[in-house]
Specification:
globular; 20% strand; 276 residues; single chain; Rossmann fold; alpha/beta; 7 strands; seven-stranded mixed beta sheet; binds S-adenosylmethionine
């Protein structure tokens, strides 16, 4: 526990610019570990409330059910047929692949700053309506008004300048487009995220706090995560991997979500055309 507290106390207060300096090589490094292509998601997963209809998945997708449920909850009931979708921070591509197969948009493009993650996606998935490219969330390589929906899941905490990212999303979204955005922050910082979204020209359609559903997914995913950590992480780095993966022992995530020191939030946004 002492090691965990030390990790938490050293990492938690870092500003976004400094955090990015550590996180960029970290994501390149972890992308090099999974040589079997077993890890397709890097989010905490989500267990929806008991009254929600159970998501029907193909048998091969069951192992990733919790992570897929977080994507499903984020995208909600949007009908994506005939739509063009961008995922920023697509990681190992599991979410974009789920959306391409189950929700059938005309096209979904995943972008990520991690070169190895994008290389993995280009080899792992081959669907006509799915593609990937390497790009920085703060400098999106697309013309104005290119997309009907932009998705961003558990990635924005890595960006040095979140306002620049919000401006880029606003620019590449069509006038009737939607921005589905979820991530975590230290609880007092969530109000600032909301304020920056408004300043960037978005109107909030939905806001929700997901801590309970995230905690219950972490409970249910404990065995699988510990198995992956034992398989892929060097012994000395295990406490770091456990913190990062948010297992139940983790100080920075499981305990912090439980004590509401951190909040996992979800926004659904549209462009605020009234101020245009
Ligand atoms: C926790 S992972 C989440 C990946 C994916 N959304 C998922 O749920 O599986 C965060 C991802 O954000 C990416 N990322 C970090 N900084 C980025 C940036 N400036 N631009 C684009 N992607 C970035 C990382 O490379 C990593 O793949």
């Amino acid at each position: 526990m002492a090691m965990r507290n030390l990790l938490y106390r050293s990492f938690a207060p870092l500003g976004p610019q400094v955090r990015a300096i550590f996180l960029r090589p970290w994501y390149e490094y972890i992308s090099s570990l999974d040589r079997e292509g077993e890890v397709r998601f890097m989010n905490y997963g989500f267990q929806p409330p008991g009254d929600k209809q159970v998501l029907v998945l193909e048998p091969a997708d069951e192992r990733d059910r919790l992570c897929i449920q977080l994507y499903d909850h984020l995208v909600g009931s949007s009908n994506l047929q005939g739509k063009s979708v961008l995922e920023v921070g697509s990681g190992r591509g599991g979410g974009a692949n789920y959306i391409a197969r189950y929700l059938a948009p005309t096209q979904i493009t995943g972008v990520d700053i991690t070169r190895r993650a994008v290389q993995f996606c280009l080899l792992a998935y081959s669907l006509d309506n799915l593609d990937f490219r390497q790009a920085d969330a703060e400098d999106l390589p697309f013309p104005d008004s290119s997309f009907d929906l932009v998705i961003n899941l558990e990635s924005s905490h890595c960006y040095p300048n979140i306002s620049r990212f919000f401006c880029e999303v606003h620019r590449v979204l069509g006038s009737e487009g939607r921005f589905a955005f979820a991530d975590w922050r230290a609880t007092p910082a969530v109000a600032q995220v909301r304020e920056l979204l408004l300043q960037s020209g978005f109107a909030i359609l939905e806001y929700e706090e997901l801590n309970n559903g995230i905690l219950s997914a972490i409970d249910d995913d404990e065995q699988r995560k510990n198995r992956l950590i034992r398989k892929y992480s060097p012994t000395l780095l295990r406490p770091v991997f456990e913190e990062f993966a948010g297992v139940k022992r983790s100080r920075a995530f499981y305990q912090a979500f439980k004590q509401n020191e951190r909040t996992y939030f979800r926004f659904l946004l549209k462009k605020d055309n009234s101020s245009a």
